Amino acid sequence: MKTPKNKTTGDARPHLLDLDEAELRAWVRDAGQPEYRAGQIWRWLYAGRATSLDAMSDLPRRLRDRLEESFRLWSTHVAEHKTSADGTEKYLLDLADGGRIECVLLRDGPRRSICVSSQVGCAMGCVFCASGLDGVERNLSRGEIVEQMLRLQRLLPAEERLSHIVMMGMGEPLANLDNVLTALDVARSPTGLGISPRRITISTVGLPAAIRRLARHAHPYHLAISLHAPNDALRNRIVPINSRVGIREIMAAADDYFAATGRRLTFEYVLLDGINDSPQCARQLASLLRGRVSMLNVIPYNPVAGLPYRTPDPARQLDFRDVLEAAGVNVQFRQRKGDSIDAACGQLRRNRDAADAHTTH
Ligand code: SAH
Fold this sequence. Notes:
Layout: H1 21-30, H2 36-46, H3 61-70, E1 77-83, E2 89-94, E3 100-108, E4 111-115, E5 119-121, E6 136-139, H4 142-153, E7 164-167, H5 177-188, E8 200-204, H6 208-215, E9 222-226, H7 232-238, H8 247-261, E10 265-271, H9 279-289, E11 294-300, H10 314-326, E12 331-333, H11 347-360
Parallel strand pairs: 4-7, 7-8, 8-9, 9-10, 10-11, 11-12
Antiparallel strand pairs: 1-2, 2-3, 3-4, 5-6
Bound molecules: S-adenosyl-L-homocysteine (SAH).
């Protein structure tokens, strides 16, 4: 049987970050306090970067005590915090029930981007990805998603703000869309983190019904679709969920998203040596994307221990790129960041699990 690690000692208090602004106001009212106190608490969480409830120093002591009795601010425990020379920082977080997730802060020029997880594990089964190797354990709550944002925000000096969010950590965000959307409400809200929806990216393996639901959302986010193959035969092999969906349906949903939002789409393509990196694949990919207002993000594979895939050598990457550029595709090769700290999805968790297994046997 799997034993939970670092179980947070049976703390039954609800998670404060699960509450939205209206729910917090209702709690403050029920506690017999004037409503503006809710605004104060909210500001401490999102602008004031409080790291404990007790630090909310302009609240009356009695209210602070009530808060402490009623809620916990953090629901996770930092199992590991890694920093790499390029300014990338990564947290491995233990959840109260024993699950593990990870999230990353990336510094790139003036950008302060964070990469956030949406599930513990992943059910999509992409063969090259570390996150899904053991399947999915559960969805993250709204509070657990917000907590990743707030923990990473607190790594920044006071004069710096988070500028971008990518839902590209562990899990499939469109398989946990309700909680992802309520978490992003606070990321986007001017009284929350105040990040424009244009700077918030939801990355998906491509679930058409959920893409259409997202297209109807009042605040359209940037959508990235993880394609990885230009035809179904190949995609079924490397992205198993595809055999239940198919590229044609995904592209139709993507077109609907663009029509409804006017937002340029991003397609992601992890380049795997000898699998999806041939000039023929590049030509097929170019014709698939032709006529679509989109950006193609090519990501050279980041090796995962124990998996048989390899990163194509630079010459082969260049050939792939040349074909796409000659065909007029708007393509960008994504630089790898945080390699030294296993910053690719699911890798830190996996390596930690392996190390733990090693030390406990
Ligand atoms: N489930 C979502 C979001 C999480 S994965 C999705 O599929 O988009 C975020 C991105 O990282 C995806 O494009 C995914 O394919 C890519 N990725 C996963 N493992 C990788 C690896 N080892 N090297 C490079 N990119 C990887």
